[in-house]
Amino acid sequence: MRSVRDRPVTRLQRRAPRSLPPRPGAARHHGVARVPLSVIRLDARGWHDRDDLWRDLLAGLGAPGWHGANLDALYDGLVAGENSVRPPLAVEIAGAARLPAALVAYLTRIRAVFDDAARDGAAVALRFVAPLSAAAR
């Protein structure tokens, strides 16, 4: 039996995004606030299941303690500004190539949530990058 929280996210389940005020002290260019991009880098090499993924992703986003570990809550946190790391932001995941196939498939669903949030006005992105070698650290 599939868990309810693992269903694909539908547009009807989402809240409309609200506009966020610029960060205090943001640089301005021609009267428009320029907010620096926050980059959250996650190392997936130690992930064995979804719990590992959600633990690191929610911690990286600065999600509140009551934030759910599911796709609907992720979308809400991205578009409604519920996380302490506010857009514009990019999450970079390194080392995903060696994850179990089921976890890779789930990451594609998480990427779809980021894409939907971006399409709905949130300045967010999810990228997969190669892990740093031990020599480069």
From TrEMBL:
Kindly provide the name given to this protein in its UniProt entry.
Answer: Barstar (barnase inhibitor) domain-containing protein
Pfam families with a match to the protein in the record: Barstar
Native source organism of the sequence: Sphingomonas ginsenosidimutans
Task: Domain (Barstar (barnase inhibitor)): give its ranges.
Answer: 39-122
Question: Where do the segments described as Disordered lie?
Answer: 1-29
The UniProt entry's sequence similarity note says: Belongs to the barstar family.
Cite the InterPro entries for this sequence. Answer: Barstar (IPR000468), Barstar-like_sf (IPR035905)
